[in-house]
Specification:
66 residues, alpha+beta, two-stranded antiparallel sheet, 4 strands
Length: 66
């Protein structure tokens, strides 16, 4: 197995790693409830996709304090 003969400089290392950064995911608005969702995904707030109800979403209710 080959081993490096010399150490890479900081500049060379950083140039190689320039493509390893994180990319911001594109998001849009749900046409039904106007919540921010990612493209081509079912809205997790209302359950709609392309104007059709795909999932039934349970509504969370607060418990009454006793």
């Amino acid at each position: 197995m080959a081993n490096p003969k010399r150490r890479h400089s900081n500049t060379r290392t950083r140039l190689r790693r320039s493509h390893d950064h994180l990319i911001v995911q594109a998001s849009g608005l749900c046409p039904n409830c106007k919540a921010a969702i990612r493209s081509h995904r079912i809205c997790k707030f209302c359950g709609f996709y392309k104007g059709k109800q795909v999932l039934t979403v349970k509504v969370k209710t607060k418990k009454k304090e006793q």
